[in-house]
Task: structure prediction
Amino acid sequence: MTEISTVVPAFDRRGAAVTAPVVDVVIPVYNEERDLGVCVRRLHEFLRGGFPFTARITIADNASTDATLEVARLMAAELDGVRVVHLDRKGRGRALRAVWEASDAQVVAYMDVDLSTDLNALLPLVAPLVSGHSDLAIGTRLSRSSRVVRGPKRELISRCYNLILKASLRARFSDAQCGFKAMRAEVARRLLPLVEDGEWFFDTELLVLAERSGLRIHEVPVDWIDDPDSRVDIVDTARKDLLGVWRVSKGLATGALPVDELRAAIGREPLVDGVPLGMVGQLVRFGIIGVASTLAYMLLYVLLQPLAGAQAANFLSLLITAVGNTAANRAFTFGVRGSTRLVSQHVQGLLLFGFAWVVTSGSLFTLHRWAPDADVHLELFVLVAANLVATIARFVGLRFVFRNEAPAAAVVSEQAATNRLDRVYADA
Result:
């Protein structure tokens, strides 16, 4: 059960009442009777003092067992622009989802009740969202320009967790769990039904979905002081976070998470017509894999040429590296996971190998007709040049092979994307 107090008007910095605020700042709380009043008054004073956007404070009490709800109601009665939401189930993510989905604000935000983050970072957090420049914004404690005071244990845990996210989910955001985030409300309404977690992993799951959907995430370096009285169970939270990472990884690999559809429906369009979204990143990853494949090809050719001759060495070297190249590009360049269409995609990769073999063997044939006594170094030079031509064709071919699989390509129509999302939302 979710209980919402009478919706009160928000306030602007002059104290004038505004029905629908620009920013709705949510404070999720559980058993915070001691600190809640101090936090709300401090935030209320800050928002009335010089904050340029109309704002409302929403206290989201998730199943507190002490006097937190009573204190929250006293704050709502005492201060203008403050309201209370009560949930019967515990969970920060669950509380945020309930408030954000129902909010009439343009931008929804949240911060921890201890106000560990300096409030001066609130305007830089929400301004890019109000302007439309970004879709989500997060505070980061891991930027070089952030100023953070906390113990070595929490510092180590935080950095290790973010390294795990980068390694397993290819996350590019720097700090998943800083309790200081905001997003445009229209984006929240599209993403939140797909976020399964209702506790501490909520933030990470939301950010991964947003990033994979092509949304822009703005990061704000913060000044942050650790709360020594935090009630978070680190061991239990870490266990649940790792389970969440596994679940989201599996969802992305199997296609259970409709990130392609989200990208088509709400992601940002390419900057240049004719250059598909994500193609630059694909080219970089394809180039790195291509360099590694070329080095492996050259090594194999040098080893096999004295034993099998030039043409046979070229064929075998190309075949071996083509299989590895297709697998590497499938996983890293185009982000395709799982066994779906694995065999057919490798068969198509071998057809591209056939084209490369024709180009390179033809160049060898021509070289030997022109210079029958050419040594292995000249052969390698000609083969590498021919492989450059084949590589361009291979990139175009692989984009076609993985055209319906690659998250970066998002080659689904907007109508099809909307239809699938509607089905997902109906099941959520």
Remarks:
- Confidence is low (pLDDT under 50) at residues 406-418.
- The first helix runs from residue 36 to 50.
- The longest strand covers residues 55-62.
- Residues 157 and 234 are 9 Å apart (CA to CA).
